[in-house]
Amino acid sequence: MQDRDLHDQRLTIPNGAAGLNAKLSLAHPGRPLLILAHGFAGNKDENGLFTAARDYFGGCDFSVLRFDFRGCGENDDSFRTVRLVDLQSDLEAVVAFARSSVPHSGLGLVSFSLASAVSILVNPRVKAQVFWSPAIYTDRDMYARHQTDEILDSIQNRGYFVKAGLEVGPQFLEDLKSNQVIGSLGKFSRPTLMIHGTADERIPWTSTLAVSRRFPKLKLCRIPDAGHSFKNKPEFRELVFSATADFFGKQFVKRRSKPQ
């Protein structure tokens, strides 16, 4: 990895009325491009995880595109009526924008937490994908832990609950309970790397281990004692970034003459 002075270009990716706020960091034209998709109620920085990833990947000569799902981050619209299908639409729009408007020699997608489920539903046209702390069994691993008295009381009294500053409606929780993520795995054929910490406090490592058997082209990376965002030890993120860069590097080398 080499040091590189990275500069983010602010973009608005067309989708819906207002579009999606995004940041593009180009290594240089014609290099592989990695899209980073954030988790539930997150944003394109992911509390420093995606910012650090941009720096690392830039040093490996990857371009990086980060974006805010609708209602999140710097987008002005509300999250209160957002559904899982809306996040699918956003990811589809970002991938289409990257394919048509950003010069690259190959396209990869990094999905964090809930974005992994969104990616499976979309099955986007990318060369390969990497899932960080993937939330795929959303019913038992996400819906269930959002059934607290405090959340249910807030929904009953106000029609929504607040998560990380976002107003989340009950319909989104119902989408976490009932969706086609697992059923869509049969159509998912992209080379995939899953990285998960055994001390994840939000999504159990055992869920990723269980679902991994359903992927036809999967490499599984287990990081002992790492948490959900890999921040409890500095070396954890280094492991995540290096494994991701190595995986994509091998995928892009195979067919550089055929951009995805």
List the helices and strands and how they pair.
Layout: E1 9-13, E2 20-25, E3 33-37, H1 49-59, E4 63-67, H2 84-101, E5 107-112, H3 114-122, E6 128-132, H4 138-143, H5 149-158, E7 161-163, E8 166-168, H6 170-177, E9 192-197, H7 205-212, E10 218-223, H8 234-254
Parallel strand pairs: 3-4, 3-5, 5-6, 6-9, 9-10
Antiparallel strand pairs: 1-2, 2-4, 7-8
Helix pairs in contact: 1-8, 2-3
Summarize the structure in short.
With 260 residues, the chain is of the alpha/beta class. It has eight helices and ten strands. It is globular and about 55 Å long.
Please describe what this structure looks like:
This protein has 260 residues and is an alpha/beta fold. It is 35% helix and 19% strand. The protein has helices spanning 49-59, 84-101, 114-122, 138-143, 149-158, 170-177, 205-212, 234-254, and strands at residues 9-13, 20-25, 33-37, 63-67, 107-112, 128-132, 161-163, 166-168, 192-197, 218-223. The strands form two sheets. It has an eight-stranded mixed beta sheet, sandwiched between helices. A two-stranded antiparallel sheet has the order 7-8. Helix 1 (49-59) packs across helix 8 (234-254). The longest helix has 21 residues, at 234-254. The chain is globular. The two termini are 24 Å apart.
